[in-house]
Amino acid sequence: MNKLFTAAMGLALTATALTASAQKKYTEGTATYEASVNGQSVEAKVMFKGDSSVTVMQQGPANIKVLSFKEDYLAVLVDVPVANMKKAAIATPGELEDALSKMPSFTFTPTTETKQIAGFNCKKVVAKDTKSNTSFDAWVTTDISAPASAFSTLYAKVGGFPVQFTISQMGRNVTNTLKAISDVKVPAGTFGIPAGYDKMTLTELSAMSGGR
Which pLDDT does position 21 carry in this prediction? Predict the structure, then answer.
């Protein structure tokens, strides 16, 4: 699991619904993000419906999907067509608890700074991780609202929909910027594991990728 993969993991640990008032409310759809890690960028699409989400991204020859439901379920699907390999790593309760324990815990301080990002009117909020005592700038909008499955439960109480936000995971800062969001219906079966995947634990998948 290399550094760009952490972008998908950070977006996929989702749970609490956002409760801010807004002009446009999304209950189901697709949010497209640019996730940047150490100067490298990758496009990540998050399809969401209620408490369920799937984050889809391309990493080299691999197609990666991260499925999540609340904080109770997490699965990573890796499909490498050129190698004829399909792996589905389903987090055990212990693995999920360990992953959640390593995620930051934010407090939020709003500011008066404003700017537009991707056509959204945004306000700056300072997010402070109480575990590491580090701070990040987040830009949120009240133009829209959506379940936290469309972004991250870590920012569910930020006071709006986070258009640009940072997550520190596995020692790397991942900055996610919303590019677009639509209310197109999510196809049936999107949140399931298709047939043909070899199932394993997250630990086993990590070992296959050199423990990264």
Answer: 37
